[in-house]
Write a structure and sequence with these properties.
The structure is a homodimer. By secondary structure, chain A is mainly alpha-helical. Chain A is built from 11 helices and no strands. Helices cover 77% and strands 0% of the residues of chain A. At the A-B interface, helix 8, helix 9, helix 10 and helix 11 of A face helix 8, helix 9, helix 10 and helix 11 of B. Chain A binds a DNA duplex through helix 4.
DNA sequence: AATTTACCTTGACAAGTGTCAAGATTCCAG
DNA sequence: CTGGAATCTTGACACTTGTCAAGGTAAATT
């Protein structure tokens, strides 16, 4: 049975059953990757399937072939984005042998992220806000938020460990703090405020010893 | 000269010059208020001028008469929203005579806000995210962010003062922390997580003595 | 009372939207 | 090689969108 003549749900089920699963999912991720480009550029509100298709090597029909609808596509994008994101600081955590090394590695990665991946991160904040309106996003968004909280907690725990102490705050509070600072710095950075990054770094440098 | 036959910029200039300014602006705010209803319900991405008009006592043409375009309307909404927002905790700050009173007043207001104004606040987070994509929003959003930071700072300063100490963090860090916690609690609350509010309260209660 | 101005309604336009299906193409098992 | 399945392209549909202008109504001014 051709995939197209059935609903997308059945299509996907059939594909999974038919051992084409891996290929099918690989294609979905390819498409999600292409979609993330345009989404990062325009944001959720202004991005249409046709716009996504035009900025990619695919035609708009393919997206309908692989995704049951627009929300399905965006959800897949969000999930895919997550995988890229949550391990960002793990290498720093694994290799740092002192508080100083961890601090400098963390700050360097933070700077690099703000400089080169601002678009992806504003999309994250966009989608997290959308989740407040669109229930279909909530599960994935809450899951990613949890992963990010765990990521921050790994950094803080390691930092504390390297000084022989324990973090002075809860995982939730630490994540809220760093996420809030990052979000604010991102907005200022996107508004061409050149002090945004240095101020963020100074703030984090000041905070790390007091809260971890 | 009739307002409609000129561009909106001129129209507004003419209105201002013609002493109709107050009436004109009052009408704009009335319209912005109506628009905020729908925006809070649907979010920026899904809200159209017609939808706004249908959920209000006005026809869609009126919005074009009072605003040069959709962005102009939304900007006005954001600015108007600000005024409602930034004084929320001032009464608590002014009347509290002890740390306990301030804490309880703050937490009560926090709860009330989450319970009764979740829609307005998700809209704020939505618009702040939009500002990362749409430059036209940035100035207003950054300004509101500053006002909110100052609002948090007033609370923290007063809390410290009531204990004869000084806040242990910068205004930026304190705002990032509370904003991050609130944002996370709001999302969970909207996802029908009944622990969202109590957990937020517990976290804030724990944090206040350590950071202020 | 007459006329100009401010305010609002209505309907239209062009562009863009998500969705879908019919047909072309590619791929692969028999 | 061949027939059928998987994949993709194309074009169409019904609908919504922001924008705007022609016209009507109410209010103010002369």
């Amino acid at each position: 049975m051709a995939r197209q003549t059935t609903g997308a749900a059945q299509r996907i089920a059939v594909a999974v059953a038919a051992l084409g699963e891996e290929k099918f999912n690989a294609r979905r991720i390819e498409l999600a990757d292409a979609a993330l480009e345009t989404l990062g550029e325009l944001g959720f509100a202004r991005t249409s399937l046709r716009e996504i298709a035009q900025n990619s090597a695919f035609t708009h029909g393919v997206f309908h072939y692989y995704f049951s609808n627009k929300l399905d596509l965006i959800c897949c994008c969000v999930r895919h984005y997550k995988a890229k994101c949550v391990t960002r600081y793990d290498e720093v955590v694994a290799t740092a042998q002192s508080r100083d090394q961890l601090t400098e590695g963390f700050l360097a990665k933070l700077t690099e992220t703000l400089r080169t991946e601002a678009r992806m991160h504003r999309l994250w904040y966009d989608l997290r806000s959308q989740a407040m309106f669109e229930a279909a996003f909530r599960k994935d968004v809450l899951e990613i938020d949890k992963s990010l909280e765990a990521m921050i907690w790994r950094i803080a725990s390691r930092y504390a460990e390297l000084g022989g102490t324990r973090p002075a705050s809860s995982p939730a509070a630490l994540y809220a703090l760093f996420d809030g600072l990052f979000q604010s710095a991102l907005l200022k950075h996107l508004a061409d405020d050149e002090k945004a990054i240095p101020e963020l770094l100074a703030e984090v440098r000041r905070l790390l010893p007091t809260i971890c």
